[in-house]
Amino acid sequence: MLVQNIRLTGLLLSSIIASALACSRVTYTGAKDGRSLVGRSMDWLTPTNSSIYAFPPGLKRDGAAGNNSLQWTSKYGSVITTAYDLSTCDGMNERGLVANLLYLADAEYGSRNHSMPAMSLAIWPQYFLDQYATVAEAAKDLFDSNGDPKFQVRTKDLIPGVSTVMHVALSDASGDNLILEWINGKLVVHHGTQYNVMTNEPSYDQQLAINEYWSVIGNYSLPGTDRPADRFARLSHYVEMAPDAPDWVSALATTAGMIRAVSVPMEPINVNTPNITPTLWRTFADTKDLVYYYESASDGMYFYVDLKELNLGNSSGHTLQLPMVGVNWTERVGDMSGLFRQAEPFKFMSADN
Ligand SMILES: *[C@@H]1O[C@H](CO)[C@@H](O)[C@H](O)[C@H]1NC(C)=O
Ligand SMILES: *[C@@H]1O[C@H](CO)[C@@H](O)[C@H](O)[C@H]1NC(C)=O
Ligand SMILES: *[C@@H]1O[C@H](CO)[C@@H](O)[C@H](O)[C@H]1NC(C)=O
Ligand SMILES: *[C@@H]1O[C@H](CO)[C@@H](O)[C@H](O)[C@H]1NC(C)=O
Ligand SMILES: *[C@@H]1O[C@H](CO)[C@@H](O)[C@H](O)[C@H]1NC(C)=O
Ligand SMILES: *[C@@H]1O[C@H](CO)[C@@H](O)[C@H](O)[C@H]1NC(C)=O
Question: Which family does the record claim for this protein (predicted)?
Answer without folding.
Answer: Belongs to the peptidase C59 family.
